[in-house]
Amino acid sequence: MPMRPLAKPFSKPFAAAFVLALATVLALPAAQAQDRIKLKAIGQPLATGLIQKNKEQPFFENFAARTGLPIDVDYKPIDTLGIKDTEQLRVMKAGLFDIVSLRVSQNSRDEPTILGLDLVGAAPDYATGRKVAKAYFDTVDARLQQQFNVKLLGVWPFGPQILFCKKPIASLADIKGMKVRVYDQNLAKFIEMVGGTPVPVSFADTHQSLSLGVVDCAITGPSSANSAGWPEVTTHQLAIGFQMALNGYGMTMKSWNALKPDQQAKLKAAFDGLTEEVWKYSEELFRDALNCNAGKDPCTTGKKFKLVDVPVTPADLELVRGAVGKVSLPVWAEVCDKSNPGCSKGWQATVAPVLGLK
Question: Where is the signal peptide (predicted)?
Fold first, then answer.
């Protein structure tokens, strides 16, 4: 039987090309994995409740699907990180995180300009809150970029911040002489004007402070209060909105600039979608939680309690609305203009016309 001739060996150039092609194919999964962007995000505290749980966290956990970008986010609520919610901007400036769910009031000591989003009396309802957020967005974005290298991607509300008390009240005037939990200087000055004693207490510590009598009353949104069990240690709720508790999403300019223009557009569109969802959801929660706290129906999002619903009087409404000109704007302007000359003029030019203020 004749022997078959041996196959010719590959030429050296062909062999080299084959090995290179094979290596390329084998490396594809690794290369694709390396192409994915990994970002670290600070979220709202777990204790704040349903917006964090049902809107924010799912968005970040499904970030690639929601944005259409090869980005994976390591999302951590701030109360699991050992970082204070007053330190968010400092942490972002240091480059320790890429994205932040920014607590506006809590970080206003580091950057007073941002509190212009949420002056006491300026946004007592959702419709006004939207107008204020839109009017002041570019001002806040520019300031955060300048001072902290953080780009503002969206603004959204927890909703009207109302009063909870463990002593009987019939109107705002009844908090005279009472200790009231507050979360920023603007609100503190208003409580002083009404005759109360403002006491700064973190959200996480408020339930215990009410229970122990450290404070007699406390201010937050009705849904957050329900989630944190405040109605267990209070008896009355007065549903008048002092502030809208506007918050924002920010991203370090380093991470933002690392994206291509089309990726930036997709990312911004995704955050626009998220913030619009939260605006609508927040309003649903607000109305439902008021019912839950007072033991009324419908109550679908929280636990039923038995708080007394204190009627909001025209005099109380006028007191809160008048706070902008009398207290919150002058107090804030003095502080803000010191660190950011022209700060209050910027607000007067953008937000004041929306509110019908001269």
Answer: 1-33
